[in-house]
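[agent] plan:
  1. take the single chain provided in the ticket
  2. run structure prediction with default settings
  3. attach structure tokens to the ticket
  4. add a short note for the reviewer (M.T.)
[agent] executing step 1
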Amino acid sequence: MKQLGKMENLFFSYIQMRRLTTVRVGDMKDALGLSAIQERKLLSRLSRAKMITRVRRGLYLVPERLPLGGVWTADATLALNTLMEELGGRYQICGLNALNFYGYDEQVPMRIYVYNNKISGERVLGAVTVNFIRVDTKRLGAARKIRKGDGITAIYPSRARTLLDAVYDWARFNTLPRAYKWIRDDLRQGRVAPDELANVTLRFGDVGTIRRMGVLLESEGAEEPTLLKLEKSLKPTSAFMPFVPKKPKRGKVNNRWKVVMNED
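[agent] step 2 finished; step 3 output follows
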């Protein structure tokens, strides 16, 4: 157990007595009779010693009870939820984390990827680096709350939304052409429905994603009303695009969707 000084002991005694889970700069000044400088140094010292977790400047998560050994790190999802609530924002976990959650990719990501409508860039929350990808609020949705074993709730995309993002955001997550196999397998095994994929594509995709999803669903035998929904959202064009980006644009062409089938 780490040896705590008088000020640290007072700090933990106070937060346990009040059953606090968060502390802001300013909270301890009157409570412990500290100056602003003393309070700032105390919080900084505790954060560096990994006894409390800094969520953002001036906001910390604190343990209900300091564990044996004196080291405590807030759960990354709890820190993420706290930060988003503080910012008044929305988020949903995405990319490699969502793919692993649904079993498409066995690789366990070393960081958390998050679509959100407030911030961008990397931040360390607890013991995990979070990659924040800022998007328009309209691109958030088709998500579900997942309650973890510790009772903390995380926001994950639906299965269909995860597959859509693997096509839409392929360059960021390096998911094409693998995503096409995941989609085909899920369609054939009934884990997702063609109409469900078409709807999330129309809501959250772009023109390229609609064309790629359209030709894929058509090849998998989707019914014509589903395909027409996608087709009617497109403007006429004479330009062809590759089914698989970064591969030579050679192969059979699909005139309906203006896609070069260069998967093989």
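[agent] step 4 note for reviewer: The two ends are 60 Å apart (CA to CA).
[agent] ticket updated
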